[in-house]
Amino acid sequence: MNLSLFISKRYLFAKKSTNLINIISALSVLGVTVMTMALIVILSVFNGFDSLIKSFFNAFDPDLKITLAEGKVFPSNDSIIKQIKTFDGIFSFTEVLEENAMLEYDNKQDIARLKGVSDNYTETSGIDSMIINGVFTLKDEHGEYAVLGHLLANRLSLNLNLIKPIKIVAPKRNSQPSLTNLDVFNTKSIFPIGIFSVLQDDYNTETIIVPIDFARNLLEYTDEVSSIEIKLKTGVDALMFQKKLEDKLKKTFVVKNRFQQHEFLYKVMQTEKWAIFLILSFILIIASFNLTGSLTMLIIDKKKDIITLQNMGATNKLIRNIFLIEGWLISIIGAFAGLILGAIIAMIQLKFGIIRFPESFIVTNYPVEMQIMDFIYVFSTVVMIGFIASWYPVRYITRKHSLLT
């Protein structure tokens, strides 16, 4: 066994001549353990919220979304788009036309996001499983229908039991309003048939879904779309398929995966996670001052041992390594203990849901999700801080007290 490691282990676990040194050493280990545990628990909670929010978007957003790089709409019969429809790996391919519009219902008005979709929209989004009132049907032999987000329906005081249509008003294309030309709006009516609720207030607040032909007629388009929404077959790698589409579409179109469709939100979440990680790492640095104090007192306590080792031929490097390795051992023991305790706490919360949200929240328990990379990052950070906290004081103190020449 390495001599420095052997002596360091003896110094760490053996009783010191002064009991205070044992207490400070124990506090050093405890401080590292608590901060490591806190890092694991907090990062696991952030991971849980991250997965929870991603599941919200997965319920409504497509796997991939194709839009124009510049411009608003493009022909659905574009030659490149036609080729993409034949790509192996696509489960469903939905044409979408979106535009802002004003809704009128029972003397109430509101601004909404009109979303016209093709007939196979349920295959792309699974919206039919999110209906909380009525049904999801956009077209049958009797006519065309609309489905609204529940918050938008609440603002309009929508009642599906009343046979009353929603009036949708949108600006005419290329119209120039003036004092002599006030006819600048198109108006169409459609009956509401369903109300949906997803765990994304943006959609619940502003979205009304209608047949794409209805939207084209209202907005004065023929076969144009504003986007193409794609659902991939099970097992298809979304990132690789996205790259394949981007190579085919060149710079004319933009292909976005689920994360890129809400890029700002995901960046904010990741920034918050690592900001908390840095803050707790800074607190860990402060907690490592206990380690510096512990090593300082140990070096003074073992002054006679150092002289004995020097007389036996020990080099200055070996003696410094003894105390440096002791600092590492404190950090490593504290890190392992913290990782284990953090994992146990996360598993208890995952299994039993000890910490709960108020009943009105969308989930009952704080979500947690452990990721192996978090354990690696935390362990590496703790060991690195332990090395820095040990290396400088060992060199400085041994010289200051003339223990090493």
Give a brief rundown of this model.
The chain is built from 14 helices and 13 strands. With 405 residues, it is α+β, with helices and mostly antiparallel strands. The chain has 2 domains: 3-57 and 266-400, no CATH class; 62-261, no CATH class.
User: Strand order across the biggest sheet?
Assistant: 3-4-10-7-9-8
Overall outline:
elongated
Helix vs. strand class = alpha+beta
Mean pLDDT: 85
Oligomer: single chain
Total count of helical runs of at least 4 residues: 14
What is the H/E string? HHEEHEEHEEEHEEHEHEEHEHHHHHH
- How many β strands by DSSP? 13
Measure the end-to-end span: 27 Å
**If you compute it from the alpha carbons, what radius of gyration comes out, rounded to the nearest whole angstrom?**
32 Å
Largest sheet: 6 strands, mixed, barrel
Work out the helicity level. Answer: 40-55%
How many domains in all?
2
Topology:
Layout: H1 3-13, H2 19-60, E1 64-68, E2 74-75, H3 79-84, E3 90-105, E4 108-117, H4 121-125, E5 131-134, E6 139-140, E7 143-149, H5 150-155, E8 166-171, E9 185-196, H6 201-206, E10 207-211, H7 212-219, E11 224-225, E12 227-232, H8 238-249, E13 253-257, H9 258-261, H10 263-287, H11 289-301, H12 303-311, H13 316-352, H14 372-400
Parallel strand pairs: 4-10, 7-9
Antiparallel strand pairs: 1-12, 1-13, 2-11, 3-4, 3-8, 3-12, 5-9, 6-7, 7-10, 8-9
Helix pairs in contact: 1-13, 2-10, 2-11, 2-13, 2-14, 11-13, 11-14, 13-14
